[in-house]
């Protein structure tokens, strides 16, 4: 390459030296700014980086309840300005959920909102998240081990008690069937134990149980066999309408045991979830009641608490400003217990119920 000489070249050399000096000064200035931002956390860029993305773990999507919850996530994330990763469905597989959560961490998620499938198994994923300083909020199911910023959940003991009391008030005597959830989940255990304990207050009622693990086909097959041996069943408690409603009604219809409310042969049925399909079944007289799990509030406050955790906020036990109570489950683990109303023929058309807002 040839080099230029003369007055023009001299001027270019001076300009070049000035430009290099300016660049060195700018670099020093930017470096100092970066150090200040790291030390004091006042940089807008640093805050954006700290906030990061939020991963969303769904236990399953075959249930209308979780489908509705999933739809609410996008709505509330947008309202709160939360940058979310695409929701991941673990298909009711605890091992897959652990893998999914670890993948979210590897993708750079700073926070995760997850509905645990197995209360104990998820501790492996929680431990991994804690090691990477990733905050986690558990929704619907409380883990038995591991660190979470908050558990967002309704009082599942109350689910079992409300179902039991409704049946106890409407059935004078006879056999009652409890179709249970997965007993590896604290939800399944809480509902089962509460219903079982409450039913002891009604000595004229006898209890039959079906461990169905949140699986509709398992519930249907077991109920079919149970009804063959016990055609005189008077009431059924389904712990999850999202997975048990259709199989249960189909089984009763096939065995010619599905009679509308008001008929002397009607089997009293109480469910859990509060999905639109349950409300329609109540209106038809096929079932009598359900306890409405707040899918909308699970999404809203799951995101609310993960945002708060990423901002360094903490909470204490006590009443909240959204008609719930924060309780301490175990040392260092808090749960926001959201309200879950009983829905019957009398209030099934209440427009404030989330199940009546789903299009």
Automatic annotation (TrEMBL):
Supply the name of the protein: Monosaccharide ABC transporter substrate-binding protein (CUT2 family)
**Domain of life, source organism:** Bacteria
State the Gene3D superfamilies in the record: 3.40.50.2300
Q: Which InterPro entries match?
A: Peripla_BP_I (IPR028082), SBP_2_dom (IPR025997)
**The organism of origin for this protein:** Paraburkholderia tropica
Q: Which residues form the signal peptide?
A: 1-48
Which parts pass through the membrane? none
What is the similarity comment for this entry? Belongs to the bacterial solute-binding protein 2 family.
Q: Which UniProt keywords apply?
A: Signal
């Amino acid at each position: 390459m040839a080099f230029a000489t003369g007055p023009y070249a001299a001027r270019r050399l001076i300009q070049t030296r000035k430009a290099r000096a300016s660049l060195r000064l700018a670099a020093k200035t930017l470096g100092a700014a970066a150090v200040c931002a790291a030390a004091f956390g006042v940089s807008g860029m640093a805050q954006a980086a700290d906030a990061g993305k939020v991963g969303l773990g769904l236990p399953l999507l075959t249930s209308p309840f979780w489908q509705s919850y999933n739809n609410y996530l996008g709505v509330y994330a947008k309202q709160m300005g939360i940058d979310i990763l695409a929701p991941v469905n673990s298909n009711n597989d605890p091992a897959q959920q652990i893998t999914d959560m670890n993948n979210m961490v590897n993708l750079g998620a700073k926070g995760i909102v997850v509905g645990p499938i197995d209360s104990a198994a998820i501790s492996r994923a929680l431990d991994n998240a804690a090691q990477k300083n990733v905050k986690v909020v558990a929704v619907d199911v409380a883990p038995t081990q591991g660190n979470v910023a908050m558990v967002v959940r309704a009082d599942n003991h109350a689910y079992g008690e409300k179902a039991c009391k409704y049946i106890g008030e409407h059935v004078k005597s006879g056999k009652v069937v409890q179709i249970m959830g997965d007993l590896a989940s604290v939800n399944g255990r809480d509902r089962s134990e509460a219903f079982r304990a409450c039913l002891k207050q009604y000595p004229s009622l006898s209890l039959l149980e079906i461990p169905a693990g949140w699986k509709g086909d398992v519930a249907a097959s077991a109920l079919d066999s149970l009804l063959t041996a016990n055609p005189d069943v008077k009431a059924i408690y389904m712990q999850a309408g999202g997975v048990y409603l259709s199989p249960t009604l189909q089984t009763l219809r096939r065995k010619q045991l599905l009679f509308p409310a008001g008929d002397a042969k009607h089997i009293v049925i109480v469910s859990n979830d509060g999905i639109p399909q349950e409300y329609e079944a109540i209106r038809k007289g096929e079932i009598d009641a359900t306890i409405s799990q707040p899918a909308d509030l699970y999404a809203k406050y799951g995101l609310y608490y993960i945002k708060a955790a990423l901002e360094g906020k903490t909470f204490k036990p006590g009443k909240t400003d959204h008609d719930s109570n924060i309780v301490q489950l175990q040392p260092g683990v808090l749960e926001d217990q959201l309200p879950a109303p009983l829905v019957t023929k009398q209030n099934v058309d209440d427009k404030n119920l989330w199940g009546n807002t789903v299009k």
